[in-house]
Specification:
single chain, mainly alpha, 7 helices, elongated, transmembrane helix, G-protein coupled receptors family 1 profile domain-containing protein, transmembrane, membrane
């Protein structure tokens, strides 16, 4: 969740703050270059997708930590979490890296859009899939499986008197 907060902060900084500065003429539009346009767009879309992917990873962590399978629980470690956060960041950078090639600044100096209709469709499809649809499906599925793990843990191993005493001592 900490990494998600950082990703959202970057998205807000590059996405919202720069648009507000341009809208209220605090930032000069003539100084915007095509490279700045592409960079701003990249740093808006990538952190948004990273943040939703990290929420999915947090749900997967909850699923693995609630499992009775020792091998599955071994994935719920800080070392593994760091690797997953780095992997998610790299995958999302690869997915959204196309914006450095396909985006261009419009003549008005404010707007930055994909250069061709195919790029518009690809960008819209990527945003729909990696920010909206897939994370919701994965969070729902992992949440449901986590609830099933927790509910079935009590029926798998009957507790005995010694287990109850250890629980009370804790």
């Amino acid at each position: 969740f900490f990494a998600t907060s950082i990703a959202n902060l970057v998205a807000l900084y590059f996405g919202c703050l720069t648009h507000l500065l341009i809208t209220f003429d605090v930032y000069s539009q003539s100084s915007q270059s095509s490279y700045y346009c592409r960079t701003r767009t990249f740093f808006t879309y990538t952190p948004l997708s990273v943040s939703t992917s990290l929420v999915v990873a947090a749900c997967a962590d909850r699923y693995t930590s609630s499992s009775s399978n020792v091998r599955l629980r071994s994935f719920s470690q800080i070392k593994m979490s760091r690797k997953i956060v780095c992997g998610i960041f790299l995958i999302q950078c690869f997915i959204w890296g196309q914006q450095f090639v396909r985006f261009s600044q419009q003549l008005d100096g404010i707007n930055c859009f994909p250069a061709t209709p195919f790029c518009v469709s690809f960008n819209n499809f990527s945003l729909l899939m990696f920010y909206s649809i897939l994370p919701i499906i994965f969070v729902f599925a992992l949440g449901w499986m986590t609830i099933r793990h927790v509910c079935h843990q009590h029926t798998r191993c009957p507790s005995n008197l010694k287990d109850r005493q250890l629980t009370i001592e804790l």
